Amino acid sequence: MVRFFSALGAPLLAFTQYLGELVLLAADTFRSIFTHRLRWKLFLNQVVEVGLLSQLVVIITGAFTGAVFSAQTFFQFNKLGMGSAVGAVVSVSLCRELAPVLTALMVAGRVGAAMSAEIGTMKVTEQIDALRALAVYPVDYLVVPRVLAMMVSMPLLVAECIAVGIAAGYLVAIFMLDINGTYYMANMVRWTRSRDIIMGLSKAFCFGILIVFISCQKGLATREGAVGVGRATTEAVVNASLAVLICNFFLTMMFNIIYPAGYQ
Amino acid sequence: MIEAPPSPKTSAKLPLLSDDSSPMIAVRSLQKKIGQQEILRGVDLQIGSGETLAIIGRSGGGKSVLLKHMVGLMEPDSGEICIQGQNIIGMNERQLGAIRKKVGILFQGGALFDSMTVEDNIAFPLREAGERDRKLLRSKVSEMLEVMEMEGQEDKMPESLSGGMKKRVGLARAIIRRPLCVLYDEPTAGLDPVVADSINRLIRRLQQRFGMTSVVVTHDMKSAFDVADRIAYLHEGRIYFNGTANQLQQSNDPLIQDFLLGRSNGGGY
Description:
The complex is a heterodimer of chains A (264) and B (269).
Chain A lengths: L1 H34 L4 H11 L4 H23 L8 H39 L2 H7 L4 H38 L5 H11 L2 H27 L4 H34 L6
Helix pairs in contact in A: 1-6, 2-6, 3-4, 3-6, 4-6, 4-7, 4-8, 4-9, 6-8, 8-9
Chain B lengths: L24 E10 L2 E11 L4 E6 L5 H8 L7 E6 L2 E2 L5 H8 L2 E4 L11 H11 L5 H14 L15 H13 L5 E5 L7 H18 L2 E5 L3 H7 L2 E6 L2 E6 L1 H6 L3 H8 L8
Parallel strand pairs in B: 3-8, 3-9, 6-7, 7-8
Antiparallel strand pairs in B: 1-2, 1-4, 4-5, 9-10
């Protein structure tokens, strides 16, 4: 019994320590944003890395998610004679869930991995020590630009994913499923509210914060050379993805309190 | 600790001190454990302004760990490190910024920022200090490259540089803001004898030209004899010898003789 609790205790302590490190990094970063100068050039570089270079991934994700969801929804709804409601279902689902979560998972894999790998490599090659020795605080130089870029880029990427997904869903509905385009659009516009878009973009913002802090923390904590960098990168992607999925549930429940179901 | 004649328990020889008698760097009773291993077991050392001290010792003996403590990259378990009389132990990263502007460090592999060109690497400290004038930056970088005998290499990326060139660029970056003191972590490690000699000459030139205090961590005895005013031998976490190169060479201590002659099973054990 004692052995069981000892075995449980060590990972629990390690997890608690990990959460603590994430919180401390976040606190340090936000303190730095408000009290020290921002490196705008680095920020813009990161906006390009995070936002601009994620376009293709987000467009493909949005397009095929919208397309398949449109098809799957039609296959079930048509049995009930509600084929024209596909547009509304696709649109609301994309806004609230599919676009933010899938975009976040793709960004975690692409951008999160890159961030943790880059910072981790800098750590094991003493470049972070070199920054510190040159009186440059690593959080100011490495983390702040990435956080700001993610805060700006993620909502835009999710908005793009929603738009592309709705467009793809529409095209599939009209040209492959023979749904009446007028009814499709009318229902979509009628049942998609501003709160759905607010939920989606808010989730995007939160997911972006999670991804960037988890990835940066893993990079800064990297040890043991190339193996350590590989491990840090993998853990960053996995942890960020899990965090997105878990956080998504709680955000959904929270938004349901703010905007209860049935609210007009 | 060895002075002259050899004796493990002799107290430290007084270093060359500046006119105001305060050492540039003072290390007192420094102790550091990494994991279960005691790396530093009470290091006492003083480095005077303008002098060059070589810290020698066996591989894994804690020389680089000691060096990193001097610029606040590591924190000891106990002890003090004073830079110009100011104790840096307990300072947070932001407070250490002012200290680190006085002390440059050359890392063993150069630690160049691999996403930046040679020019951007060398100009980095100036840009971070707020300098935006591109002409001025370029001229200062050119001046540094001239000192390092690397003219025309501004646009190269670190991956295309040789080991010796990386160290030169790292050194240029460390000294471009004219720190009062420069720390060298194994500056000749991994270099062929000719390139190593050029690095030694470079260190000497910087001392003469800019009057910088230097601390050179090395196990390259030729390098130590070439550049150092004084040599400290770090053994089992403590300063075992502290004196001039002549005193070191004339020492009859078996441990020192084994190290100088490169004997692995000598009379000292």
